[in-house]
């Protein structure tokens, strides 16, 4: 077991309060990604703690806490600091997992007191480290803690850029199939590129792919979207293709990684699936069923896929329609997607910057009742389409008053022309 001093001086007051109170009642350790990132010299916001206190004891120490996984020993602890600021973190009782007969979760867990035993059940060596903080953190100006690294492999693998399981890879992957997707997320090193798989881990992933069918689609999507949010997302997706992951999680979907990645995971999903020949709704419905996307995610994916064959029209009319019909999120996603496809968006973005603020906003200046009053049209398709057409022209010309919109009625034969040909406000 390797022990090193770790500076904890930047812990917020809320975190120190929780650590102090747990330390008064029992023993407590910082675990998980926060430790990994701290040792790697990165900032981390999510603080996970382990303790020898059982969930009911944790709950008793923090009355405002919530039991979020009592069966597995997890409590969401909530406290207020001296300035009234809320702080929360997950606290999990030390445990030893029973067998994994279903390939998804342990058959049972046994609460324990041994941090080394708890670390030994974790997935990868870089995640199997803990920090034991010194007592009295709240009153210490420069608090510190002791790093616990069972055989030094966590630090060693962090330094060498190697992703390796705790113990035999075949056994660890065989316990929970989700670890195959989770492994790819931990390949990301940001600006440092990618970690490498330990050969044994790479083989274990490729040979256990059918286990993914036992894992819920929601859990797979939760991990996969985090892969798609990584700095090196496309390189990681390439590795997933090489290992056959997509044959299990997105069967029949053609994956294309030859693209400039976005910071948005839905944009990246749309980009890697852009070779699908089906239209947006059909493609997104297929993927939504395979990954359990939310309605919002499915809608965003559908809209982006519909953009794959368009050319950006930089006319002021097109730019104004884009500005009026798209939310800020949609604008960002579409432009990211187009850049990922290799489109030059510079001229379009320049026009958007100059024409994004419409004088009257994006809503119609004239409602159906007013149009009916002026034209004598009764409610129906013709009136509705006329209203939509007027709204479109209002936006394209950036009109600012009801009078200007009404004057449009004299520009064309709305009484005799085919209203089905009247275009409403839309983009492109």
Could you characterize the architecture of this molecule?
- The structure is a single chain.
- The chain has 428 residues and is α+β, with helices and mostly antiparallel strands.
- The chain folds into four domains: 2-154, Beta Polymerase, domain 2, CATH 3.30.460; 175-306, cca-adding enzyme, domain 2 (Orthogonal Bundle); 316-355; 368-421, no CATH class.
- The protein has 20 helices and twelve strands.
- The protein has helices spanning 13-25, 33-39, 55-61, 115-120, 153-160, 169-175, 178-185, 199-207, 217-228, 233-242, 246-249, 265-272, 280-291, 295-306, 316-325, 328-340, 346-355, 368-375, 381-397, 402-407, and strands spanning 2-7, 28-31, 48-51, 66-69, 74-80, 86-93, 95-97, 109-111, 129-133, 144-149, 162-163, 196-197.
- The strands form three sheets. The chain has an eight-stranded mixed β-sheet with strand order 1-10-9-2-3-6-5-4. Strands 7-8 form a two-stranded antiparallel sheet. Strands 11-12 form a two-stranded parallel ribbon.
- The longest helix has 17 residues, at 381-397.
- The chain is elongated, with a radius of gyration of 28 Å.
- The N and C termini lie far apart (61 Å).
- The model has no long low-confidence stretch (mean pLDDT 92).
């Amino acid at each position: 077991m390797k022990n090193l001093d770790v500076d904890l001086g930047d812990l917020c007051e809320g975190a120190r309060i929780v650590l102090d109170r747990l330390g008064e009642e029992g023993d407590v350790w910082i675990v998980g990604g926060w430790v990994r990132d701290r040792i790697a010299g990165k900032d981390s916001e999510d603080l996970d703690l382990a303790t020898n206190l059982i969930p009911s004891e944790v709950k008793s120490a923090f009355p405002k806490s919530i039991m979020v996984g009592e069966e597995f020993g997890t409590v969401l602890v909530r406290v207020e600091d001296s300035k009234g600021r809320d702080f929360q973190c997950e606290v999990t009782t030390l445990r030893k997992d029973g067998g994994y007969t279903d390939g998804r979760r342990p058959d049972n867990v046994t609460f324990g007191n041994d941090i080394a035993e708890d670390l030994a059940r974790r997935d990868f060596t870089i995640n199997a480290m803990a920090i034991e903080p010194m007592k009295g953190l709240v009153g210490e100006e420069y608090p510190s803690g002791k790093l616990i690294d069972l055989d030094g492999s966590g630090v060693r693998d962090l330094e060498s850029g190697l992703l390796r399981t705790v113990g035999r890879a075949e056994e660890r992957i065989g316990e929970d199939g989700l670890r195959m997707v989770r492994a790819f997320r931990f390949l990301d090193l940001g600006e440092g590129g990618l970690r490498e798989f330990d050969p044994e881990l790479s083989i274990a992933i490729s040979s256990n792919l059918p286990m993914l069918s036992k894992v819920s689609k929601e859990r797979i999507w939760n991990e996969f979207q985090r892969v798609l949010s990584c700095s090196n997302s496309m390189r990681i997706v390439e590795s997933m293709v090489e290992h056959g992951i997509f044959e299990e999680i997105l069967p029949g979907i053609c994956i294309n990684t030859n693209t400039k990645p976005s910071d948005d995971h839905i944009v990246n999903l749309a980009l890697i699936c852009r070779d699908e020949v089906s239209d947006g709704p059909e493609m997104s419905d297929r993927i939504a069923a395979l990954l359990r996307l939310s309605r919002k995610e499915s809608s965003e994916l559908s809209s982006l896929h519909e953009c794959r064959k368009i050319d950006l029209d930089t006319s002021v009319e097109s730019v104004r329609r884009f500005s009026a019909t798209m939310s800020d999120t949609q604008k960002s996603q579409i432009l990211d997607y187009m850049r990922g496809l290799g489109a030059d968006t510079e001229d379009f973005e320049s026009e958007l910057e100059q024409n994004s603020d419409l004088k009257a906003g994006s809503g119609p200046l004239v409602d159906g009742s007013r149009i009916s009053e002026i034209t004598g049209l009764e409610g129906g398709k013709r009136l509705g389409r006329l209203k939509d057409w007027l709204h479109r022209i209002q936006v394209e010309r950036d009109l600012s008053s009801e009078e200007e919109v009404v004057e449009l009625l004299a520009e064309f034969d709305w009484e005799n022309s085919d209203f089905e040909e009247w275009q409403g406000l839309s983009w492109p």
